[in-house]
Design brief:
Layout lengths: L15 H18 L3 H13 L3 H13 L4
């Protein structure tokens, strides 16, 4: 039965290493930028409405096309 396990030994729905990495990077970002998150969000929204908005939306679609369903 172990023939179907991934090489890293993980099983089930999650990828624990990737989750840990994401959580660590998120925590680090918030530690460094926590007081600026609202300003960063406003800047990002303004960028979407600005002259680079089409390029940003295209990049988003490109990224989504690589995501697993």
């Amino acid at each position: 039965m172990t023939d179907n396990l991934p090489a890293d030994g993980e099983k089930g729905e999650g990828n624990y290493k990737a989750t840990r990495d994401y959580n660590e990077r998120t925590e680090r970002f918030l530690d460094e930028n926590g007081d600026k998150v609202e300003d960063l969000a406003r800047d990002a929204a303004a960028d979407l409405d600005g002259e680079e908005g089409d390029e940003l939306r295209q990049a988003e679609e490109e990224g989504k096309s690589h995501a697993k369903s």
